[in-house]
Write a structure and sequence with these properties.
Bound molecules: pyridoxal-5'-phosphate
Distance between the termini: 29 Å
Structural class: alpha/beta
Strand content: 5-15%
Radius of gyration: 21 Å
Order of helices and strands: HHEHEHEHEHEEEHHHEHHEH
C-alpha cells in the first residue's frame, strides 16, 4: 500500500536514548551534584573541545557551555565587546534568535543585506558600509547560513583592518566548522541541531582568557570558587542532566553526520537538478535542515506543488528579521534586496537523519516536473 505524502514529517529530531546515558544519570544520583559546572558538565566541555578541536585542527580549542544557542551569542557579545552599547551589524537574513541575542546583550542591531551566493554577510561589503554609520559600531555578528561553512579567516582579516570585533552565530554549523581562531564561534545544541542535547549552547575560541570570562558570565560573574561577582553576568549554565545527554550525543556525532550526508546524497540522486540545493551541502557540509533555492518564479510553483500533495515545507528564516514586529524599530542598511529575494526563494524540504527513501522520492516527485 502506498503511504500518503501527508505522513512525511518536516523534521524529526533524534537524541540519545535512555540506555545511552543512564549510567551518567546514576552518577548524578550518587554525587548529588545537579548543576554549577559539575563533573558531567566539565567532562562534556572537555570532550566537546577535543572533538571540535580535532575537526578544526585546533588542539587547544577552548569552550564555554551555555544554556542555549541564543545565550551563547549573548554571552559572547558581552564578554568579547568592550563597549556595552552601540550598534551591532548583523544580517537580516537569519533565524530571529540572532537579533534577540543582540538586543538582550545591550546592542542595537542594524540589519544588513547578505551576499546572494553565500546567503551570509560579505566582509568587503560590510567594510565599505562602515563609514556610513554615525554611531559607534561595537560589533559585527556574522551568521552561518543554515549551517553552511563560514569563511572565518576573511573575518579575521576584517577585524584586523577595522578593529571591529566579530562574533559568529554558527548555531547550526557545528558539523561544518573547519577552522576556529580567537574570535568566538557560537553553536546551538537545541534538539533540532546536529549535536542536540535538548537545550544548550557553546562558544568556542582558541583564546583561553576569553573563554574563562565567558564561563564566568554564565555563572553570575564568579571566577573559580569565590562567590564574588568580578564582572556582570547571569545564570546561563547547563545542568548535569543536559551534560549527560551531551556526553552520549558526542559518542554518536560522527555516525549522525554520516546518516545526514547519506540522506542528502539520496535526495540529490533522485532530483532532476542537484544544483538546486544549497551550495556544497552534502559534499562539504551537513546540518539538520535541507534547502533548495530555485529562481523566484519556479519557487512559487514548487511551493504550490508541495502544498497540493500535502508535503510540508518551510521558509526556515521567515522573511528576514526586519519584517518581525519586535524588530521593526531597528534600522536597516540599504534595500535588503537579496534578503527579500532569498527569503522567498529558499525552501526547506522535509529532512531528518532517518527520512526514508520513499519519503524522499515523494518530495522529489512533487518538484521534479518543475525542474526540467
Ligand atoms: C538555532 C539557531 C539559533 C538559536 O539557538 P537556540 O539554541 O535555539 O537558542 C540562533 N541562530 C541560528 C542561526 C540558529 O539556527
Amino acid at each position: 500500500m502506498k503511504k500518503q505524502a501527508s505522513s512525511i514529517p518536516m523534521l524529526r529530531p533524534k537524541l540519545p536514548m535512555l540506555n545511552e546515558y543512564d549510567h551518567y544519570i546514576k552518577q548524578i544520583d550518587e554525587s548529588r551534584v545537579y548543576t554549577n559546572y559539575g563533573p558531567l558538565s566539565r567532562a562534556f566541555a572537555q570532550e566537546l573541545s577535543l572533538k571540535i578541536g580535532a575537526r578544526t585542527n585546533a588542539p587547544n580549542l577552548q569552550v564555554a557551555l551555555t544554556s542555549s544557542g541564543t545565550t551563547a551569542i549573548e554571552v559572547a557579545l558581552r564578554g568579547r565587546v568592550e563597549a556595552t552599547s552601540g550598534l551591532c551589524l548583523m544580517p537580516s537574513y537569519t533565524f530571529v534568535a540572532s537579533a534577540h541575542a543582540v538586543v538582550n546583550a545591550g546592542f542595537r542591531p542594524v540589519f544588513l543585506d547578505v551576499n546572494s551566493e553565500s546567503y551570509a554577510l560579505d566582509p568587503d561589503t560590510v567594510r565599505r558600509s562602515l563609514s556610513s554609520f554615525t554611531e559607534h559600531v561595537a560589533a559585527v555578528l556574522v551568521v552561518s547560513a543554515f549551517g553552511a561553512p563560514v569563511d572565518i579567516a576573511s573575518w579575521e582579516q576584517f577585524e584586523y583592518e577595522t578593529g571591529v570585533p566579530v562574533i559568529f552565530d554558527a548555531a547550526a554549523a557545528i558539523a561544518s566548522l573547519d577552522y576556529i581562531g580567537n574570535q568566538p564561534v557560537c553553536v546551538s545544541m537545541h534538539a533540532t541541531k546536529v549535536l542536540g542535547i535538548g537545550e544548550g549552547g557553546a562558544v568556542f575560541s582558541r583564546n583561553s582568557d576569553l573563554i574563562d570570562r565567558l564561563a564566568a558570565i554564565t555563572g553570575f560573574g564568579f571566577y573559580g570558587a569565590e562567590r564574588r561577582s568580578d564582572i556582570l553576568g547571569g545564570n546561563y549554565r547547563i545542568s548535569e542532566y543536559n551534560a549527560a545527554v551531551g556526553l552520549a550525543a558526542l559518542r554518536g556525532l560522527e555516525q549522525k553526520i554520516a546518516r545526514l550526508k547519506n540522506r542528502i546524497e539520496y535526495y540529490k540522486s533522485v532530483s532532476e537538478n542537484p544544483h538546486i540545493f544549497q551550495k556544497d551541502v552534502g559534499d562539504r557540509w551537513v546540518t539538520m535542515t535541507l534547502n533548495i533555492a530555485p529562481c523566484s518564479t519556479i519557487a512559487k510553483s514548487i511551493v504550490a506543488a508541495l502544498d497540493e500533495r500535502a508535503v510540508p515545507w518551510r521558509h526556515w528564516w521567515g522573511l528576514g528579521c526586519h519584517t518581525h514586529p519586535a524588530f521593526e524599530r531597528f534600522s536597516r542598511h540599504g534595500t535588503l534586496e537579496n534578503t527579500t529575494n532569498l527569503a522567498r526563494r529558499v525552501i526547506g524540504l522535509p529532512f531528518f537523519e532517518d527520512i526514508e527513501d520513499w519519503q524522499i522520492e515523494e518530495v522529489a516527485d512533487a518538484i521534479r516536473p518543475l525542474l526540467v
